[in-house]
Every structure is written in C-alpha cells, then in structure tokens.
Amino acid sequence: MGQDWRVRVWGVRGSAPRPEADYMKFGGNTVCTSLEYQEELIVLDAGSGLHALGNRVTADRFKRLHILLGHLHVDHIMGLFSFWPFYNPKAEIHLYGRAGFQKELGLLMGPPFWPQGFGDFSAKLYFHELYPKEVFGVGGLKGDTMEGNHPGGSLLYRLEASGKRLTYALDCEISPDNAYELEDFSCKSSLLIWDATFAPEDMRFGWGHSTWKQGIALGRKAQAERVLMTHYSQEYTDVFLSRQEHLAMETDSISSFAREGMVIQL
C-alpha cells in the first residue's frame, strides 16, 4: 500500500440503524469508517457497520486493528458485539477511547447484557484511554484529540502522516465557543469527516450535532480539501438525503455525502 490512505465507509447513520428499502442508497448502518494505512487498519467508531467490516478483515492482511471510539453511546459501539476478529487468536486489536471507557464498555460487553466479555475473546486486546488535547501514536500515524460539544462528552480525532491529515469530527455541535478550536483542529485536512446529523432547517440546538451547511463553512475556514458528511438522522430517507446532497453541492463542491461502500483514496 505504500503511503496511500484508503478510507472506506461502513456505516452512516446516527442513533439507530435503518435496514429498510428507503434507506439503502446511502445506507442503514450506524457510523463506522475505516482507514487503511500501510499494514494497519484504523477504524473510526464501531457502529453496526463494523459487523460487515469484521467479516472482511483477515489477520494476515493487517498487522494490527485499531478501533477509535468517539464515545460510548450505543449507536457508536453496537458493532462490537458481533465483531468476529475478537475471536481470532491471530488478531491484535487496540481500542481507544475517553478516560474510563474500558471499565464502562466492559459493563456492556458481558453478562447480563451479552454472553461473552472482553476476557473471553481469544484475540490480543489492548486498551488506550485518552484525554482531550492528548497526542498519541496509532498505527504509524500521529493522533490528536479534541473535546466534542456533545451531551456526556465525546472525542474528536485527527490523524496525520507524510503531509496528509484526516480529521474525524462526529457528535459535535459547533458553537461560538468551539468554532475557532474546531477550525484550528481541522486546519488543512485532506479529509474532514463531519457530523451532518441535521438538515439546516431541522437543527436542534443542545443535542450535540451539526449540519452539512456548518460543515461546509468550517471546511472553507479550515482550508480542508474535502468535507465528507455523515452520521445522518435515522429519519432521513434516501430521497431526502439526495435533495440535501444536491443543495450542499450547489453550495460548495468541497462537500460530499457518505454512502456505505464508498472508498476515498487520499
């Protein structure tokens, strides 16, 4: 793979999956995006889309898997329960999240909520607890974090190497208090993955989410090369999202709307 970055979309929804015909063009799984870098696989959030990713991963192809969790709301972790690489003794899996996430996640991944917990898996598991503004290494990339404006808190991630930068900013409501920090955090991103939960006319303040219009404005100020919208409301059908995508493209061609199966080469 050399220094190529391959970004693949596995899930695009927020809150809940929508496995129905009217939602299949963009996708019905909750958020999950992967980045292939050299022999490492970095996974951003573990929504229900992680199940399909897990079925296609082979331990022989990637030395390590890294799963970066923005927070522990169920739509961001539900894919962990059926992630088959946990049962592969050849797999080395690193999980990253906010300070305290290992204990909190362990309460869900095990009885009485699930038959097996992390102690029952045969893969080699490592947990990395992070704080906002912490710099860390992940799969040969430099990682940075930022606190998201979201009920209960969230982590935003920035990954960079060899002049390329990916910023992952889901579950964050942009406001006058964090706008400058978000601009600095996503400055000159090769790809900014943005929380487009709401259409502009549906924006609900205080819910911890944003709009595609805000994402375009941020991308312009941050001089991002491309802004990928995702984390759509579970209520938005393909017809509705297609209209929003058209409006966004008319506003600025910097933007695109994520679809399950989409691959972006950086």
3D structure, described in words:
The chain is α/β, with parallel strands linked by helices and 266 residues long. The protein has 5 helices and 14 strands. The chain has a 7-stranded mixed beta sheet with strand order 6-5-4-3-2-1-14. Strands 7-8-9-10-11-12-13 form a 7-stranded mixed beta sheet, covered by helices on one side. Helix 2 (101-108) links the parallel strand 5 and strand 6 (124-130). The longest helix is centred in the last third of the chain and has 14 residues, at 238-251. The mean pLDDT is 95.
Offer a concise description of the structure:
With 266 residues, the protein is of the alpha/beta class.
What keyword list fits this structure?
266 residues, alpha/beta, seven-stranded mixed β-sheet, 14 strands, 29% strand, globular
Rg calculated over all Cα atoms: 17 Å
Shape: globular
* Spans of at least 5 consecutive residues with low confidence: none
User: How would a crystallographer describe the biggest sheet?
Assistant: 7 strands, mixed
Q: List how many beta strands DSSP finds.
A: 14
Order of helices and strands: EEEHEEHEEEEEHEHEHEE
Mean pLDDT: 95
Q: How much of the polypeptide forms β-strand, as a percent range? A: 25-35%
Q: Specify the helix fraction band.
A: 10-25%
Q: Count of helices?
A: 5
- The separation of the N and C termini measures 12 Å
* Cross-sheet strand order for the largest sheet: 6-5-4-3-2-1-14
Coarse structural class? alpha/beta
